[in-house]
Amino acid sequence: MLEIAICDDEKQLRTCLGKILEQELDLNGYDHRITEYASGEELIRSLPVRQHDIYFLDIEMAELDGVATAKEIRRKDTLSEIIFVTSYPDFVFQGYEVQALNYILKPYKKEKILEVLHTALTRMGKLKEDVFMLEQRGSSCRIVLDKVLYFFSERHCVTVVTTDETRSFPGKLTEVEEGLPEYFIRIHNRYLVNLKHVEAVSGSAVILSDQNQLPVSRSCKQELAIAFARRMLG
What we know:
Elements: E1 2-7, H1 11-27, E2 32-37, H2 40-46, E3 54-58, H3 66-76, E4 81-86, E5 102-105, H4 110-123, E6 131-136, E7 139-144, E8 148-154, E9 157-162, E10 166-170, H5 173-178, E11 184-188, E12 191-194, E13 198-202, E14 205-208, E15 213-215, H6 221-232
Parallel strand pairs: 1-2, 1-3, 3-4, 4-5
Antiparallel strand pairs: 6-7, 8-9, 8-12, 9-10, 11-12, 13-14, 14-15
């Protein structure tokens, strides 16, 4: 279970931050628990019993402020991620001493909170991978989508080609397409390609990272060109 602590002496701000984190973690299927603390002292008292993976600490708190609280955390825990919350950007330089990951400025911006959260999850090795669940002969197989080069259909069968293997299963390409992330694009009525593995678009073909070439139909050319250009521009 992912354990997150929010320490802020303003209840409304704790609640606001907690809701944003809760929605994102629920949306991505994380088993998690968010615990709120009204002061640094309350948080420190909990440490012998509770330990958290990520700490969101308000810097400006009465008595034990966020920096002092972070120093106490670091005496007991050197692996967790500490994120400061502050109204004053000048305070963030104090984070180096306690190896703080980042900071969030008040008033909160949801985009910044999610960016910092995902950075923390990545550093902890807990960011979930996009996967495709292949149901075959009564069993399930988990395929990491980042490794998929393309999907190919023929008659009533779909073949998925990855950097490691090739598998086929009964189905339609349109059904597969519905559940895929936006970096998959149709280049032909029989092909869905992963843009992350497209090295170049040349004439009526795409060249993949494994140097294989796939056909591009005339009806898909424009959409592919736009999507590929956007990906190249980041």
